[in-house]
Amino acid sequence: MSGQSEGTAWIAKELSWLSFNERVLQEAADPEVPVIQRIRYLGIFSNNLDEFFRVRVADVRRLAAFSPPSKQEEYKALLEEIRQSVLKLQHRFDAMYRENLKELQRRKIYLINERQLDETQTAFVRGYFHSHIQQELVPIVLDDANPIPELNDASIYLAIKLSSEQQTRFALLEIPTTRLDRFIRIPGRKGKRGKVLIALENMIRVCLPEVFRGIFPMDEASAYTIKLTRDADLELGEEVTHTFVEKMTQSLKRRKKGDPVRFVYDSAMPNDLLDYLVRRLGLGRLDSMIPGGRYHNSKDFMRFPNLGPAYLDNKQLPVIPVPAIDKAQNILSCLREQDILLHYPYHSFNYLTDLLKTAAIDPAVKSIKASLYRVASNSHVVDALLNAVANHKEVTVVVELQARFDEEANIALSQRLTDGGVNVILGVPGLKVHSKLISIVRQEGSVQKYYSHIGTGNFNEKTATVYTDFSLLTYDQALGDEVAKVFDFIAYNYKRHEFKHLGVSPLNSRERLLALVEHEIRQGSKGRECGITLKCNNLVDRELIDKLYEASSAGVPVRLIVRGMCSLVPGVKGLSENIEAISIVDGFLEHPRVYVFHNSGEPRYFISSADLMTRNIDFRVEVTCPIYSKPLQETLQAIIDLQWADNVKARIIDASQSNTFRPRKKSSAKVRSQLLTHKYLSTGKLPRMAKLDYRSRLKLKAVKSKAKK
Fold it and tell me: Could you tell me what this protein does (predicted)?
């Protein structure tokens, strides 16, 4: 599955995803990255891996179990490839963890365990345990007569062995990291400089006998960390009816009881305890058994505190103002003069909430419609929409209840909006609504005019500070009319509107994308200028990949900037030698989708909510929007040029998945695209660098050969 498939170069998306997570781990190993941020990259890597097992490995596991016999072995082999890749990454993770702890120690910051405490520190830990921790603990004593309770796959547990002359007992204890910090500062060693942290579970280990309150006789007590990852599939039916919220709630309860797909355990655990847990948890040969070190749930490193000077952490970039908005009477009047393209987190998300807050109090605004996929916990977007209802606007909000891992939050959100008088639409039967749309209708004279938002990212203030994304704010009435039609399709999905400008999944996105590639193929076949640049999170749709291979064979240069999964294999002679691909991993998570088609020197530019995956193209409501404004096209091209020129954080995607950093000549200036994008948006000036060359290398060879003759 990772090599040739049906005569076409193809990398299994799961293995490609692991290659992406390796790029995250590379950041944890980069000495140029501040050490606190390196430790947080370890947390990001771990959090990513959790979701990978809950979703992608769970899918492969089901395929291995339920596919026809001819296919089962193929999926079982893929599961084994995944397991071996994860083990290699886990070994690298452990090495990076140890190296980063040493770096912290050089900075006089210490993360110690219970065996390294002196008397004063031990006394502090015991006091802290009795005053803060003990009341949060609910140990479970295991026995064969009763089933093991369902373990929460978001938590870590201590698997405990209690030994006495009479008998050996086993127990489980959930570490209460939702109520207490995982990393707790304690006093330093007497007479020693430095700042000291200890993990919550190690505090519990110090007082392990007291967890059981003297009930059991014990000569020895030992504890080993375990983590269980479950299948996150919700098993929802396809019909969205008035009982949909009830079905979702029941499905979320079932998720907590989903089949195990990964069991991670301390490799020092004694065999009798390990064998007991494997038997009682019902782990089978399709489940990934991952031995590791003492610590699991390393996603908590994402919140690792900086106890040292500010330079040990990433430097915050100042938010860039948008003068056109700031100078206008209000944001709506600004949009009547020009389209605005916001690029988060370089620009403030407050401009977007300002749009909604302005519309909420403008007497001329009649209605607001918005599609919400993920929002922040204390969302100003939601506050603005509720305020619009209070100001007598008609407000309609599409809430996607199937936003993976945000389902419970979105159930509560839908109820809050409904209680506030908002007309709530709970998605579309059989489809996820993933588009990022706002439609504002304003009465202007005798006609109603549209103010629209079409974006690549969620309406979430929190993620907008760490994800890069684009928001187009426009007064273009043709686009506004089609955005309104998308909302009409969501509300009445039996209606089939015509879309001249927007690509709308699942209605016309596939045919539009393929037609745009086909146009470049025709230009390339005729020896004309041509080229394709695609920036996305994931590229795994087989039909589109085959079309890009066809484009390469026709001499069309294809440039890919893919953050995550890429099943396409660049640089294969006779198939994809005109395709180059890079992936950029840096301080901000690259999230926008931007598609550029050269079109014989009159490029067509698009931003999209849709990744190039079959699910996004065919089974979600997504919107791809053309950018018509020449100044905004220039801005997009400049940002893409910067990304393509990146020689600091760009890795080459190739058949070997080696994640080699793009080479840089000693004489060449460093191009770190995220920092230079900030500089460009601040000043309007680009550094000197090579522009994207859309001329095919095949055609150049032909021209040079002809010139020699």
Answer: Catalyzes the reversible transfer of the terminal phosphate of ATP to form a long-chain polyphosphate (polyP).
Coil, strand, or helix at residue 230? Answer: strand
Q: Which two tokens stand for residue 684?
A: 């309007």
Q: Name the 3-class secondary structure at 87.
A: helix
Q: Where is 42: in which H helix or E strand?
A: helix 35-51
Q: How far apart are CA 359 and CA 367, in angstroms?
A: 9
Q: Which residues are annotated as a binding site for Mg(2+)?
A: 374, 404
Q: How many residues does the chain have?
A: 709
Task: Give the Cβ contact number of residue 516 at 10 Å.
Answer: 20
Q: What is the pLDDT of residues 232-247, one digit of tens each?
A: 654 433 333 444 445 5
Amino acid at position 187, single letter:
P
List active site positions.
434
317 DSSP 8-state letter: P
For residue 248, give the nearest of 124, 399, 398 by alpha carbon: 399
Residue type at position 320: I
For the segment 469-519, what is each residue's pLDDT rounded down to a tens digit? 999 999 999 999 999 999 999 998 878 899 999 999 999 999 999 999 999
CA distance 416 to 419: 5
Helix (H) or strand (E) segment spanning residue 24: helix 13-29
Q: Tell me if 292 sits within 8 A of 94, measured CB to CB.
A: yes
Q: Which contiguous run of DSSP H or E holds residue 66?
A: helix 58-66
Tokens coding 529: 């200028």
- CA gap 460, 345 in Å, rounded: 11
Tokens 């426009």 — which residue?
A: 474
Q: How many CA atoms lie within 13 A of 323 on its CB side?
A: 4
pLDDT for residue 394 is more than 90: yes
- Residue 98 belongs to what H/E stretch? helix 69-106
pTM, 2 dp: 0.88
User: What are the φ and ψ backbone dihedral angles of 117, each rounded to 5 degrees?
Assistant: -80, 140
- In this structure, what token pair is assigned to residue 691? 């522009």
Residue ranges of the annotated binding site for ATP are 48, 467, 563, 591
